[in-house]
Design brief:
Layout: E1 2-8, H1 13-22, E2 29-35, E3 42-46, E4 49-53, E5 56-65, H2 70-81, E6 90-95
Antiparallel strand pairs: 1-5, 1-6, 2-5, 3-4
Helix pairs in contact: 1-2
């Protein structure tokens, strides 16, 4: 099993959610986050004064899927979240050792 975390632009959330559903993802966690990457944020102008907005609003999507589904999940996120502009985001994949569904006690693939 793998955990896929994607940091994307907020306006792309609905498209990505739909694409993930189409490849078989049954559940996900969405968090509103703020951050910046290499560019260090963006410059804004307010009342004639320039300033840097260090933390840009983003959305973090987290899904735990069987390992065989990871390539389809990555492809779905990458294609739908891409705008071609700076700040499109990142995708992280990590191993998950164990999953337990609290209500039923199911474990691992059955708990996803």
């Amino acid at each position: 099993m793998k955990k896929v975390e994607a940091i994307i632009k907020p306006f792309k959330l609905d498209e990505v959610k739909e694409a993930l559903s189409e490849v078989g993802v049954q559940g996900m966690t969405i968090t509103e986050v703020k951050g910046f990457g290499r560019t260090g944020g963006k410059k804004e102008v307010y009342r004639g004064s320039a300033y840097v907005v260090d933390f840009v609003p983003k959305v973090k999507i987290e899904v735990v899927v069987p390992s065989k589904l990871v390539p389809a999940v990555l492809d779905a996120i990458e294609k739908t979240a891409r705008t071609g502009r700076i700040g499109d985001g990142k995708i992280f994949v990590t191993a998950v050792e164990e999953v337990v569904r609290i209500r039923t006690g199911e474990r691992d693939d059955d708990a996803i």
